Amino acid sequence: MSTRTLTYAEAAAGALERAMRADASIVALGEDLGRGGVFGQYRGLQQAFGPERVIDTPISEANIMGAAVGMALAGLRPVVEMRVIDFALCAMDEIVNQAAKNRFMFGGQGRVPLVARLPIGIWSASAAQHSQSLEAWFAHLPGLVVVTPATPQDNAGLLTSALASGDPVMYLEHKELWAERGEVDETLAVPLGKAATLRQGNDLTLVTWSRGVGPSLAALQHEALRGVGVDLIDLRTLWPWDQAAVHASAARTGRLLVVHEAVQVAGFGAEIAAHAAEATGCRVARLGAPRIPVGYAPALEAESRLSPEKIALAARRLLDRR
Questions:
Q1: Can 247 be counted among the known catalytic residues?
Q2: Which residues of 16-46 are buried (b: 16+ CB within 10 A; e: fewer)?
Q3: Which position among 130, 174, 222, 247 bears the catalytic label?
Q4: Which stretches of the chain score pLDDT less than 70?
Q5: 4-184: which CATH topology?
Q6: I need a surface site. Which of 10, 210, 258, 271 has the fewest CB within 10 A?
Q7: What is the dotted CATH code of the domain comprising 196-320?
């Protein structure tokens, strides 16, 4: 195995470049792609493939997504750039009523094999309209695949698998992970629907995804969890999600904590907790953001952020529950 140290953004750009070289039907469209994208996730691609395959569009999310759905139905495999998930709200009709439903409503005659890149999460000092985590919205919709890579390796491997999928994929990279560095095996395709167990233990199952992974790993070193064996699972894909891995761990430990940056109320953590409790009888708890818009002031923004201390104390409360 040969690996390179890459950023989260570089890993994704490399995966897309390799896929475009292998498959002439893959095109990318969105705002600012010619200059490499807002976060550098398309750097060099327009120079390599030309403006006919890496397309700069007007500022109209509904137009971008609608064009991509049409391209997909006509036989192309578009990669749609929405800049941030907050802007994708202008394209929800095309996602919900066209991309997600087409295969079902037309008996499989039409397929929409697009990958929509919708960066999620808190973006420092960017306030409420640029810091949302809306993954539960898309997991709720039949017909969509939902992917949430947490590391450079997974951003390369999961994007490779997403590009090979025949269904519309909501590909949710985190806005504050772009500069994160890690070892990447560029030949590795990470399968959709397969979680990664990052730590093993017998006292507590901790399930998270996306930027929840870093603070969760750090929480294991907190004094509140000294001597506690934690099974830490990164779901990687929210739909399909790895029910077998979560259930097996929760059945063994008897306790499940689900951690996510999204608002806790009606977040996807509730689905995981309910499903695991029904299947295994384990005790469950959730940790997410309060039901408030993300604040601009640092103190307000911190209320919505995950931290190792918040995670460790939530785990401790679950462990101490009788």
A1: no
A2: bbbbbeeeeebbbbbbebeebbbbbbbbebb
A3: 130
A4: 1
A5: Rossmann fold (3.40.50)
A6: 271
A7: 3.40.50.920
